[in-house]
Automatic annotation (TrEMBL):
It comes from the Bacteria. Residues 23-183 form the Lipid/polyisoprenoid-binding YceI-like domain. It comes from Paramagnetospirillum magnetotacticum MS-1. Residues 1-21 form the signal peptide. Keywords: Signal. This is YceI family protein. InterPro entries: Lipid/polyisoprenoid-bd_YceI, TTHA0802/YceI-like_sf.
Length: 186
C-alpha cells in the first residue's frame, strides 16, 4: 500500500511539473499584435495596444496546445488620427457593441523545422470563423519567440460597413500579424 501511495505521489508531482512547463507568460511589452491593410492602393499598418494571451504548449506534445487571445478592439492604432478615430466606430470594429475579438485554438500541427499551424476560431464583431494560423516558433532556454501572419477577408467578419463594404476604397484583404515573446512559467 505504501509503495502504491509513493508511486501515485511521484506521478502527481511529475504531472504538476509537466503542466507548469506547458504554460507560458507572454510579455506584451516585447510583443506585437497588429494588422496590415491597404487604402487607395497604399498599404498601412496598425497595432492593438491592449490584448492578452493565454498559451499552454508542451514542445514534446504540440497536439495538446491551447491558445486563447483576447483583443480590446478600441485599442487599434495606426498613427493616422482619422483611421484611429474611425476604426472603433460602427462601420469598422464597432467596439461599443463588440468590445473584444478573440482567437482560440486547440492543438498545434507541426509542419517541419520550426513551422506550425494552429487551427482555431477567430471571432470579430461577434462572428466566429474557422481559421488556420501559420506561425514559426523558436524556443531557447525557456524563452519562446513566435511569429505569424493570418490573411483574411475583412468583410467575412463584418468589418467595413456601408460605403466601406465594397473594397473600392479600402482593400478587402487584410492580414493579422503577430510577434510574441514568452517565458515558460516556473
Amino acid at each position: 500500500m505504501k509503495r502504491y501511495a509513493c508511486v501515485c505521489l511521484m506521478a502527481a508531482a511529475l504531472w504538476s511539473n509537466c503542466a507548469a512547463a506547458a504554460e507560458w507568460n507572454v510579455d506584451t511589452g516585447k510583443s506585437r499584435l497588429g494588422f496590415i491593410g491597404s487604402q487607395g492602393g497604399s498599404p498601412f499598418e496598425g497595432k492593438f495596444t491592449r490584448w492578452s494571451a493565454k498559451i499552454d504548449f508542451d514542445p514534446a506534445n504540440p497536439a495538446s496546445a491551447k491558445v486563447a487571445v483576447e483583443i480590446d478592439m478600441s485599442s487599434a492604432q495606426t498613427g493616422d488620427a482619422q483611421k484611429d478615430q474611425s476604426l472603433p466606430g460602427a462601420d469598422w470594429f464597432d467596439a461599443k457593441t463588440f468590445p473584444k475579438a478573440r482567437f482560440e485554438a486547440s492543438g498545434f500541427k507541426p509542419k517541419g523545422a520550426n513551422a506550425f499551424e494552429a487551427p482555431g476560431t477567430l471571432t470579430i464583431r461577434g462572428m466566429g470563423k474557422s481559421v488556420t494560423l501559420p506561425f514559426s516558433l523558436d524556443i531557447k532556454g525557456g524563452l519562446a519567440h513566435a511569429k505569424g501572419r493570418l490573411d483574411l477577408i475583412r468583410t467575412d467578419f463584418g468589418v467595413g460597413q456601408g460605403e466601406w463594404k465594397s473594397g473600392d476604397m479600402v482593400a478587402l484583404q487584410v492580414a493579422v500579424v503577430f510577434e510574441l515573446e514568452a517565458a515558460a512559467k516556473p
